[in-house]
User: Fold these one by one.
Assistant:
Number 1:
Amino acid sequence: MRKRIQDQAEKPDGENGDRQFVTALQRGLDILRAFTPDDRMGLGNRELAARTGLPNSTVSRLTYTLLKLGFLTYDDATGRYRMGVPVLGLGYACLGGIKVREAAQPLMQQLADECGDGVLVGLGGRDDLTMTYIAAARAARGMISLQLNVGSRISLGRSAMGRAYLAVAAPEERAELMTRLAERVGPDRWPRLRAEIDEAAEQIRTRGFYCNTGQWQSDINSVSVPFPSPQGDVPPLAFNLGGPAYVLSPERLENELGPKLLHLVNTVKHIRE
């Protein structure tokens, strides 16, 4: 991915045949996307350059501009940048426009409470080659569940949520994403990953949900159901239920929780209609 970003960054606007595309804007957004919830100490220019694949001089100009606009703040003591308040405003504006969250949240909470200890129920959408949580629910009481919250990002290619998204993505989008995933993981790992993604699509086609047992993280099992847009005018989302493997056995996922998550999704579809 870094090479792809760098290749694009070195080309002038329109060289890829799309003269409406503003590469400078893409670069600025790449800087903002480089931050994660775990970066509590902030990021310096060198770290941002490493994460984005952009030249150091380009990163310096972009962070200066974003700082002037308030989208980044700067700590003189550490020489690091953090996200500014205006970014939060954009995030809430985005969440406010995803109406399915309002219908889904109480149902997600009800399911999380039914499942009990260690289970997280989430809803996410695609952000480049990751899935970003836009809603999350966990049991009010019980052991600590997965430390994922709104804004957390997980793998598109390896997670149950990401594979559910790929199963219902538009053919052109799916083909592009599969090509990019192949480039990222390399020829040695790609055949196995492609087979697992194809298996996820087949499970969703035949029974409506997909069970991921240890393929995202070895000690985590999960089940996911895609949520295509009823009108097909926006990208799909995906619901996910996951937790420690010793809590969520493959049998429990397949026989109990997969059908329950599928029922939740169908209920949300009915409410939205």
Number 2:
Amino acid sequence: MDARVFDIPRYLGTLPLFAALDADERQRLADGCSVHKYGRGDAVFRVGEPCDGFHVVVYGQVKLFALAPSGQEKVIEIVGPGHSFAEALMFTDRPYVVNAQALADTMLLTVAKVAVRREIERDPRLAMRMLAGLSMRLHGLINDVQAYALHSGVQRVIGYLLRDRHAADGDEVVTVSLPVSKATIASRLSLTPEYFSRVLHELEAAGLIEVDKRDIRILDAQRLAGYQSR
């Protein structure tokens, strides 16, 4: 996709956040937007840099992460196409508090803070839609914290594998393709890569899954959901 001919107003209309805006409103907002491309491994921003807007992933993936003084990385969120990040900081006038890195060839739409504030002054309903989106993200983060505190590592891995399906969906074999490396997913689940791999081997030995690099075939979703580690 050529960033130079990317139709920003049209793309804004596909996002739930801006779908209710009319053509003139989307055009005004688009005038405050910019498009940037990143290669795999490129830094999008780092802790301490000023936040002048928020970002939407057009294609690719972005990893939000923190670094401990020891250099250990903790993945906070993996953001995919159509999803946004850094909205909350945009209203606090604080610099970035996490790092962002492209996990693949990625294109981001950056919506400038001044453009958003201008449209909110024109129509406060935009602020309500943004608050709804932030609330959903906060709810997701709270669920993550609860999972880390209350669930074992095995339960976290099973929960991740079954996150998009119910245990009673049927007996068919379903393949889950890991969108990023196992090490990145392990960090997202607050596990070490070694422990994550051990859990996968345990589940495979129990006849619940089959692992083929990043493709994981769920052989029995009901048994997997009810599995108790030895």
